[in-house]
Amino acid sequence: MRLVRFDETPPTRWANGIGETVELWRTPSAGDFDVRLSIATVGSSAPFSLLPGVDRVLVALGVRGLELDVDGVRTVLGQYDGLAFAGESAVAAVGVSESAHDLNLMVRRGVGRPDLRVESVAGSSVPGADALAVILLDGDVRCDGRPLAFGDTCIGPGTLTGSGRVAVARTS
């Protein structure tokens, strides 16, 4: 198991240059990605980057959720609600009054399909062997005995203990 600390990972600009994201994991590690996991900061109402040929799942992390316009259709996500959409879709955050985060799993079409789910941890659990990564959303959770803070990501197999919510990233 490898641990990526969210607050120790420097942000990078979105592909469209408007916002910032913290890349938690990707493969391959350089060049165009096949699979990418990141936490973006949505600081204002703005369009998301277009990523043709990529399937995306986004989970709103802010307490107030996130309102999106996806190809002209307004969608309101509550905290920890997810939405799947194609990278070619015209997506914009709307009505943003305070900065918030969202979790993104992006998979190049033909490599697999993204699956990002919020799950509860109570006691001890082991995510399935098909889990790529586990990201702490809230609570007091440890991964292989190591305490986690918001956004910290366990990559590879590990045992979760404690109480809280995590997002589990998989591809199928």
Quick synopsis:
The protein has 172 residues and is mostly beta strands.
Structure description:
The protein has 172 residues and is mainly beta. It folds into 2 domains: 7-108, Sandwich (Jelly Rolls), CATH 2.60.120; 114-171, Jelly Rolls. It is 0% helix and 58% strand. The strands form 3 sheets. Strands 1, 12, 13, 14, 15 and 16 form a 6-stranded antiparallel β-sheet that branches. A 6-stranded antiparallel β-sheet has the order 2-3-4-11-6-9, with no helix packed on it. The radius of gyration is 15 Å and the shape is globular.
Radius of gyration: 15 Å
Distance between the termini: 21 Å
The CATH fourth-level homologous superfamily of the largest domain: Jelly Rolls
Number of domains: 2
Look at the helices and sheets and give the structural class.
mainly beta
Low-confidence segments, ≥5 residues, pLDDT <50?
A: none
Strand content: over 45%
Query: What profile does the largest beta sheet have?
Result: 6 strands, antiparallel
The counted number of beta strands is 16
Helix content: under 10%
The average pLDDT is 95
Query: Overall 3D geometry?
Result: globular
Secondary structure elements and their pairing?
Elements: E1 2-4, E2 12-13, E3 20-27, E4 35-42, E5 46-47, E6 54-60, E7 66-70, E8 73-77, E9 82-86, E10 91-93, E11 100-108, E12 114-125, E13 131-143, E14 146-147, E15 153-155, E16 160-171
Antiparallel strand pairs: 1-15, 2-3, 3-4, 4-11, 5-10, 6-9, 6-11, 7-8, 7-10, 12-16, 13-14, 13-15, 13-16
